[in-house]
Amino acid sequence: MSVAGKGEKVQLRVERAGPLALLQDAGRFGVRRLGVTQGGPADLHGWAWANHLLGNAWGAAALEITFGGLSLIAEGETSLALAGADLEATLDDEPVEPWSRFELRAGQRLRFGSPRQGLRAYLAVPGGFLADPVLGSVSSVVREGLGGHDGRGGKLQKDDTLIFQGESRKSRDLPRPPPDEERPDYIRPPRLALVPGAQVADFDGTSLFEVFNRGWQVDDRTDRMGVRLTGPVLKCAVTSMISEGIGLGAVQVPPDGQPIVLLNDRQTIGGYPRLGALTPLACSRLAQCLPGHDIHFRAQGVNAAQAEHRRFLACFRTG
């Protein structure tokens, strides 16, 4: 099949928007001192592999589709890639499997149904979706009204259009699909790596034992800002704090003793005591958990966490 030639652009028109579909590049960095959060893909792992399947450079903007419900009409010919959750994607009613590339012709309909495994799917296009950067990024943060396809952080709406350069590399030049070990089983309860730190020494011994030896459940109060967990009530000697800077994956424990894991659209400062932080890949895995899903924590040292992340980045030649 032929694809759009060099210099030609392709559009995807939104036929049905679904609950939440957002453009996300690698994120917005160097601006937290202004009170602006990072944004970026909630599941860095799925986003990275979707872009990699098309040979895109690190940072290319892809579409993060949460819960499904999205329907797109192609207005050109090109190649696309899909990774992350299985949201019952179909192309003209034929199934499209995650972790794969596929061809798109003008007039075809790409639909996403309901979560079958995981919560967020990532749709990549050649070179990434085109949009005007805001503070150095096109990542959409709805709360702050920044980035996205409209420059105001908006989620996709009916009749919106997404634009990208249609030209794709020849199939023989494209990377291989990810190996089996890079395709998570989103149904199996994950063991999430937590690097202890911050106020961890202020929690009592029983609480620390329960953090790593008891199960937790994802609460229905979860979004791109953070994930609330329910389980044992944790007790901390710290009852009042001056607000501190908050990084990705910070595990805060408010007075009710139930942890909150802060994600990409988190506030930039917080005043609750923290157990430490999940690693970026642990955050990615948590971002694929539906409400009610069981999780477990495992302790990991900072050196091991850094080595693990470097190995992940090496898959994409980012350093």
Summarize the structure in short:
It comes from Modicisalibacter ilicicola DSM 19980. Helix content is 12%, strand content 30%. It has helices spanning 44-53, 205-213, 280-286, 302-314, and strands at 9-16, 20-24, 62-66, 71-74, 78-86, 90-91, 94-95, 100-104, 109-111, 117-124, 129-130, 161-165, 191-196, 216-222, 226-230, 244-245, 250-252, 260-262, 269-270, 274-278, 294-299.
Task: Provide a descriptive summary of the structure in words.
The protein has 319 residues and is an alpha+beta fold. The chain folds into two domains: 174 residues, no CATH class; 124 residues, Cyclophilin-like (Cyclophilin). The chain has four helices and 21 strands. β6 and β7 form a beta hairpin. The longest helix is centred in the last third of the chain and has 13 residues. The protein starts with 8 loop residues before the first strand and ends in a 5-residue tail after the last helix. Keywords: ATP-binding, Hydrolase, Nucleotide-binding.
